[in-house]
Task: structure prediction
Amino acid sequence: MRDVAEKAGVSITSVSHFINNTRPISDSLKEQIELAMTDLDFQPNALARSLRLKQTKSVGIIVPDSANPFFANVTRSIEKALFANQYNVILGNSDGDLDRALLYLKVMTERQVDGLIFIDVGASGDVLNAALRSLNIPVILIDRIVPGVEVDYVTVTNIRGGFDATQHLISLGHRRIACLTGPRGLTASMDRVAGYRQALSEADLPLDENLIYTGDFQFESGYDGARQLLNLSPRPTAIFACNDLMAVGVMRAAAELGIVVPSELSVVGFDDIPLAKFSAPALTTIAQPTEQIGILTANRFLKRMQNQDLPPEQQILETELLIRQTTAPALTKRG
Ligand code: RIB
Result:
C-alpha cells in the first residue's frame, strides 16, 4: 500500500479507504490510485485486511445436499444477495449427516467466517444450542425449525403445503392417498405429514398408517416407497411425496409397473424444482419461493451483522399448490 501511495502521490490512508471502500474518494484520486496499482501490479491482501478489519466478509452456508436443486437454488439466491453487499460465500455439504454438519460448523468458524447460514439435519435442540453457543457468531437457520433453538429462521408454511397437496387429491375423489415422508425428525417433513393427516381428518377419511412410507428426500426412496405402496391391496390411487425428487422416483416406479400417471395414479410433490415443470407428465407440486427464501435470509444476515442484539425473528413464507399434469380424478369403481 505504501508503494502505491508513493507512486500515486497520495496518502496511505487514501489508498486504504479506496481498497476497503470505507470513505468516498474523488474521481481524480481514484484514477491516480488505480493507475499506480496497475503499474505496480498491486493485489490487495485479503488476509491482512481481514486481520485489520477483524472481519473476512465471508459467510458459511451448510446445506444437507448440495446436489438437490432446492438447496442449490436457495444457495444461489443467498449468494447473489450477499455478493451484492460485498460478502462472499463458503459452501459446505453435510450430506444429511449430523456429525458432518457439526464438524462443518467448526471448520467454518476456523475459516473465520463472519456468520453462518445452516440447515438442520436432525439435531436435537440441546445439541444444536451447544454447538451454536461455542461459535459465538451470528447464525440463521433456514427451512427446518429446531424446537428449543431460538435464532433467526426463514422457512415456509409446511403444514399448509401438506394440507393443500392432500386436499387437492381429496377434491379429485381420491380416498386411498399414500404419503412418502422425508427423513425422520425433520420438522419440514413432519409438518407436511401433519398437513396430510389434517386434510384426511377434515374430510372424515380414515388414516391407514400402512399408507405412510418413511423416505429420505432422495429419488431412490421415492422409487422404493412407491414399489411398496403400489403393491398394497387395495392399491392407493394417489401418492403425496414430501419433495419433488421422491415424486420423480414414484413416477419411475409407476412406469415400470405399467401404472399410468395420472389416470391410474395421481402424484403430488413438494418444492417445485425446475425439473417439476419439465418432467413428462409435468409434476403437480407445492411450490416453495426459493428465490425469496434466499433474499430474506441474506437480508436478515446483513441486519444481524449490523446489530447482533436484535431479538430472533421467524420469517415464514407461503407455499403454493401448482396443479400440472400428474393429478386427475380418481377412477370410479366400475360394475
Ligand atoms: O428437497 C429437499 C427438501 O428438504 C425440501 O423440501 C426442503 O424443504 C428441505 O426440507
Notes: The two ends are 88 Å apart (CA to CA).
